Structure formats: structure tokens, C-alpha cells
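Notebook entry, cofactor series.
This is the third protein in the set we're modelling with a bound small molecule. For this one the ligand is flavin-adenine dinucleotide. I'm keeping the input format identical across the series so the outputs can be compared line by line later. Sequence and SMILES below, as received.
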Amino acid sequence: MQCHNGIMDTPRPVPITVTFSQELTPRTRRITFEGPVVIDTSHPASYLSLYFSDPGSDWQEGKSTAAPPKRTYTPRYLLPECDSMTIDFVLHGEGRATQWAHTARAGDVIWAGHVTGGYDVPDDLSHLVLVGDDTAIPAIGTVVEAIPDGTRTTVIIEVIDEDDERDPSDVVPCDPIWLHRGTDVTDVGDQMLNLVRSITVPPSAYWWLAGEREAILAVRDYLVTTRHVPRDRIAAAAYWRIIPLDPRLRER
Ligand SMILES: Cc1cc2nc3c(=O)[nH]c(=O)nc-3n(C[C@H](O)[C@H](O)[C@H](O)COP(=O)(O)OP(=O)(O)OC[C@H]3O[C@@H](n4cnc5c(N)ncnc54)[C@H](O)[C@@H]3O)c2cc1C
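Returned structure with ligand:
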């Protein structure tokens, strides 16, 4: 935290510059940045805010504290010694971040908040079930790479179709169960919940869930109320919302 005139506020984001952009799948762009990103955590599935500010805006010039639109993303790779960070952007249609990622080129600048949060890997982890959608693939990759060798994993990922399938990690095979929801956004999470209902895992298993808000809440509620999984064995995060928010709120 920084203190200006006695008022505490969040640290100012830093500018980061695109060095490389490549298509991973028809709906995913991998973008690598260079810049002095501040890292506050060593947990996998950490995240940061990206700020989409027009060049020369009052905020960039430090003349305004009203922050531009921001979105949350997972740093898939972080190399602080090289000031390098890589993010995999799902291109889902409309949206400030998606539109930006579509056209991002080397030299483009956006702003990054601190890398924070993430999954606090339990000490007694022996089996981890990871359930997510396309936005969670980068985080799943960081989790399977961070958990102890020998941990059993069950990985369930819901995407639009087989074009979106890609291994979460190049170094730790996790053989995901792929689910295809199709392009109708109202079907998000249906197959995920059905699959979770059908699988058997040891009662000692931990669960990590991330994806569309209502889909993740439905899976978590099922686990708690029907499977009686203790809440402290479930880490659940809403990564996006199917219901569009009031546009005035979106620009916060
Ligand atoms: C902790 C965390 C980590 C995340 N990590 C990643 C990541 O690594 N990669 C990644 O791609 N996303 C990630 N997300 C999700 C990402 O922040 C959201 O998808 C975000 O809404 C995208 O912003 P946008 O400007 O493109 O769309 P918005 O302006 O936020 O939304 C525009 C419209 O698109 C819809 N929408 C938003 N996201 C999606 C989607 N994924 N699929 C379909 N429709 C959508 C909304 O309902 C809305 O109607 C993460 C989110 C969190 C909270």
C-alpha cells in the first residue's frame, strides 16, 4: 500500500509492453509482456488486474486517479528475473480485454497491478480434482505444476468444442476430461455439473473450481449439500459472469 497525503490506496499499476503474440487455438491468444510486474505471492493460480487505458489519458499522465477499465487474468508464466510475463487470453466475443487481445501487437502497452492471491496447496493433499472452463486452463496449468509429485489429479475442463482443447501444462501430463458445451452460452456449466455428479473420488480429495460464476456455484453447492464435501476442501472462484453487468459498472 502507498500513502498519499495520509490516504492509503492501492499501489499504482506499472506499464507492461507486448513483446510477442501468438495464436494457441482459434479462440486463445498467448501474449508475452515485458515489464516490472510486482509479485506478492508464490501460490499457483495467482492473478492480477490488467488496466486498459487509452494512450495519453489523464490517468496515464498521473492527472487523474479514476482508474480505467480493468480485467483479471492469470499469469501463465512469470519470469521476474527477465521482467517477463505470459498470459493466455480466451477470445470470447465482445469485451474490452478480448478486443484488446485480438489486435495486440509487439510494442503495445497496458498496465498491470500486483500479482496476488492463488491456491494455497494443502499440506495433506493426496488427490486434487480440478474443474474449470477455458478461462481456467492457464490456472490449472500452474496448479498441476506446483502440487507435489505423486499427487493424484482428476481434471475436468469444459470448452466450446475440440478446437479449444489444449494441455494445461507442457511438463506435467494431466489428461483432462474434455467437455464440449457448444456456442450457446446459456449451456455453460451444464456438462460440468453432470460430470461431477457422475465421478467417484476419495472422500479425502480436495477440489479446485474456477469458471463461469453460476456454473461454479452450482458445482460447489452440489459438493457441499449432496456429497457433503467439507467447505475447507473446496476452493471455488468465479472467473467471469454469463449475465452482462450494467455497462456503467463494467467500465470500473
Ligand atoms: C482470478 C481470475 C483469473 C482469470 N484468468 C483468466 C485467464 O487466464 N484467461 C482468460 O481468458 N480469462 C481469465 N479470467 C476471466 C476474465 O477475467 C473474464 O473472462 C473477463 O470478463 C474478460 O473480459 P472482457 O473485457 O473480454 O469481457 P467483459 O467486458 O468482462 O464481458 C463482455 C461480455 O462477455 C461475456 N464474457 C466474459 N468472459 C467470457 C468468457 N470467458 N466466455 C464467454 N463469455 C464471456 C460477459 O458475460 C459479457 O456479456 C480470469 C478471471 C479471474 C477472476
